[in-house]
Amino acid sequence: MSQQDESNNAYWSANVRLILISLAVWALVSFGFGIILRPALSGIAVGGTDLGFWFAQQGSIIIFLILIFFYAWRMNKLDREHGVDEE
Fold first, then answer.
1. Alpha helix locations (H) across the chain?
2. To the nearest whole number, what is the mean pLDDT of the chain?
3. How confident is the model at residue 50 (pLDDT cuts 50, 70, 90)?
4. Where are the transmembrane segments (predicted)?
5. pLDDT at position 15, please?
6. What does the domain layout of the chain look like in residue ranges?
7. Distances from the Cα of 68 to the Cαs of 17, 26, 62, 87, in angstroms?
8. What is this structure's pTM?
9. What span, in angstroms and rounded, lies between the C-alpha atoms of 57 and 47?
10. What does the alpha-carbon distance between residue 55 and residue 35 come to, in Å, rounded to a whole number?
11. Alpha-carbon distance 53 to 63, whole Å?
12. What is the CA angle 59-79-83, rounded to 5?
């Protein structure tokens, strides 16, 4: 295996790892906090409603937007590390 192939494999491995971590966070917030753990979070008040309802209605959207910006920032950093950036 050549040096270029190893570099490509390392790049894509890091990319897939980042995607899987982002998906895990998204699933935990959307399904975990908003649906599965909603009864356990019902006693915590946030903005006039319980925390489980807040995650189902607003929190998962906010976390998803944060994940988008985090992914873009981290991929730009990863691209620069592997010499495949566009700038």
1. 3-27, 38-41, 51-54, 60-82
2. 87
3. confident
4. 18-41, 53-73
5. 94
6. 3-82
7. 15, 10, 10, 20
8. 0.78
9. 12
10. 9
11. 15
12. 175
